[in-house]
Amino acid sequence: MSITLTTQLRVRYQETDQMGVVYYANYLTWFEIARTEFCRELGRPYHDWEKEGIFLPVAESHCRYKHPARYDDHILISTSITAIERCSLTFSYSVTRKDDGKLVAEGWTKHAIINREGQLIKGANPFLDWVKDQVSDHVEVD
Fold this sequence. Notes:
Blueprint: E1 4-10, H1 26-41, H2 46-51, E2 58-65, E3 74-84, E4 88-97, E5 103-112, H3 126-135
Antiparallel strand pairs: 1-3, 2-5, 3-4, 4-5
């Protein structure tokens, strides 16, 4: 079991396509919003880490679309950290419609942990130490 935090948003008109359905690429933006809020909820906004020279570029992403979301739907994005490795971590997401609980999409993003020079942080890693302190009782740490 992992710590799961939920972010809420409303589908904006600009996020829909000609058929009135949320355009597929917007889910990755929603994942980013939820990931940022996840860190904020745990007590360290992501921009604090960037000030310290720690960055989390997306190395891989995946999204599986289950049901359409449409303009003005109230969306819940549940976020958790599901894997922690030496130089990376993986966030998982579940997107549901609040009104009916329908699963809209699910996916994950894997992030490298790098310094300002774009190199993997392989030694002492204050970000990973912080993450492990936050979730170690809830997620397998490699």
